Write a sequence for this structure.
């Protein structure tokens, strides 16, 4: 639609919009994906919202009868209203959106910068900055109030000693912070690990862990990878003094989107940086490790 037939940045001194239910499913779409404001927020990409997916339509039909489908549509579309109400009810848990190209790029953790109006607060406390062009801001939310999620960018540097073979391992990470901890978050990299490369991904947390102090990284899938070990060891027999091939994990760098704090974590066991299937390694803040070694 043209700007005269819809909401646009010219309609007020400052215009912000929250886009939910913009993706057409089963011929239904109520919201619009087109930017129409100075700041356009796209929670969870602007499509279906947590707790409102069409896989819940059957439970909604059981609960609401023939209007169950309408309740499913309503859940996602009205989430924008509930997000705004949440910004009034929970001023201490303000939701932050980050400027990004699209949700796929955001999920890779590449868009957590706030300089130059690259981020803003969703809801009543939005920062009213007029910009020449609309800013598309993305964020994750929870399924229910309070909706706030804490966004972390993780960068892990791997050296794959199985070269030229690409491997696609699954990892879990456990985080310990000054205010709490979280166990066994499943991490699957978008692309396989090859050569000597840094991989970036987004970790959304529902609870505030405070300042991160320790990271536990585990390589899952023991049974699957035992066959690979046997194959590799058959091709390359290991001598007594040799080390078997593994993934060398040099550093883990973390950036907290909400606080913009940057942290670097180093392996607690500096004598061997290799990670093997079924094994876990502990990483602590590098500055703390240096102090401990003095």
């Amino acid at each position: 639609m043209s700007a005269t037939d819809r909401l646009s940045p010219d309609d007020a001194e400052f215009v912000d919009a929250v886009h939910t239910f913009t993706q057409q499913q089963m011929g239904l779409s109520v919201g619009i994906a087109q930017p129409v404001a100075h700041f356009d927020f796209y929670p969870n990409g602007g499509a279906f919202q947590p707790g409102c997916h069409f896989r819940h339509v059957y439970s909604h039909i059981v609960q609401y009868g023939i209007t169950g489908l309408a309740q499913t549509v309503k859940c996602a579309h009205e989430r924008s209203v509930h997000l705004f109400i949440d910004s009034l009810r929970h001023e201490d848990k303000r939701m932050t959106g980050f400027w990004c190209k699209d949700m796929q790029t955001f999920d890779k953790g590449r868009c957590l910068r706030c300089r130059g109006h690259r981020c803003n607060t969703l809801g009543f406390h939005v920062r009213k900055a007029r910009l020449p062009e609309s800013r598309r801001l993305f964020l994750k939310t929870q399924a229910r109030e309070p909706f706030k999620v804490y966004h972390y960018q993780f960068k892990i540097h791997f050296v794959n000693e199985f070269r030229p073979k690409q491997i696609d391992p699954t990892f879990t990470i456990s985080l310990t912070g000054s205010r709490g901890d979280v166990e066994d978050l499943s991490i699957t990299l978008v692309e396989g690990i090859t050569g000597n490369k840094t991989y970036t991904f987004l970790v959304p947390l529902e609870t505030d862990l405070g300042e991160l102090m320790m990271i536990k990284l585990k390589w899952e899938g023991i049974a699957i990878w035992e066959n690979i070990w046997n194959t590799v060891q058959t091709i390359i027999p290991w001598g007594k003094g040799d080390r078997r091939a593994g993934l060398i994990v040099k550093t883990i760098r973390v950036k907290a989107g909400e606080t913009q704090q940057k942290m670097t974590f180093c392996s607690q066991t500096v004598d061997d940086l290799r990670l093997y299937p079924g094994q876990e390694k502990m990483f602590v803040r590098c500055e703390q490790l240096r102090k401990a070694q003095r």
